[in-house]
Design goal:
Number of helices: 9
Order of helices and strands: HHHHHHHHH
Largest sheet: none
Pfam families: BPD_transp_1
Helix content: over 70%
Protein name: ABC transporter permease subunit
Structural class: mainly alpha
Strand content: under 5%
Membrane topology: Multi-pass membrane protein
Subcellular location: Cell inner membrane; Cell membrane
Keywords: Cell membrane, Membrane, Transmembrane, Transmembrane helix, Transport
Length: 219
């Protein structure tokens, strides 16, 4: 049987898949508030504070993720900032997701008609209420599919962290291939696992958005 080796290495595959999911979710959870804060700063914040944010976003959006990972893991220790492989993986994924997420949130916030904000202020809403109910929640509803696609991109990019010995799914597939010498079967099966995880993550986030974001709009 071409896939009978799965039984022997099942625990390694499950552990690798679990770490891939954990890395992705941790990156999303940490990057989400950072994206909202920086997106708001670009859309409505002081003009003086926008150029460093734009510089950060452009650097991370226009350079390969692998370079970010290697810089954080190999170069930062020269400046006294040393991270273990998992710390470097999480930090690089968070910075990458937040850079893309910032522009997505900014576009959603800018799409809010100014008249809605003025109407809310005239009805007695304070600044925090206007931002949450009139700007943020409708903006997230508009850009939620794009944010779900960004989460999928983070999941797929997490395969790169195997290059610094983070034991996620791609690392597990490479480890198994060096022992059973079945390259096609091993990477075909690991690709199927990535497909299932990616599909499940996207469907879960879309369902979460329909329930939580739609509930925020209804309030």
């Amino acid at each position: 049987m071409p896939f009978d080796w799965i039984i022997d290495y099942w625990d390694i595959l499950v552990l690798g898949a679990a770490r891939t999911i954990a890395l992705t979710l941790l990156a999303i959870v940490v990057a989400a508030p950072l994206s909202i804060l920086l997106g708001w700063a670009l859309a409505s914040g002081p003009r003086r504070g926008r150029w460093p944010i734009n510089a950060y976003v452009e650097v991370f959006r226009n350079t390969p993720y692998m370079i970010h990972l290697f810089f954080i893991f190999f170069a930062l220790p020269r400046f006294g900032i040393g991270l273990d492989p998992y710390g470097a993986a999480v930090a690089s994924l968070c910075l990458m997701v937040a850079a893309f997420g910032t522009k997505i949130v900014e576009s959603g916030l800018r799409a809010t008609p100014p008249g809605q904000t003025e109407a809310a202020l005239s009805l007695g809403f304070n600044g925090a209420q206007v931002f949450y109910h009139v700007q943020l929640v409708p903006a997230l509803a508009r850009v939620w599919p794009a944010l779900c696609s960004l989460a999928t991109m983070a999941l797929l990019d997490s395969a790169v962290v195997s290059l610094i010995a983070v034991e996620e799914l791609t690392w597990a597939a490479t480890f198994i291939e060096t022992r059973n010498f079945r390259s096609f079967e091993t990477f075909f099966f690991s690709s199927l696992l990535f497909l299932l995880i990616s599909f499940g993550l996207r469907r879960s986030l879309m369902a979460f958005g329909q329930r939580v974001v739609a509930r925020g709009l209804a309030q």
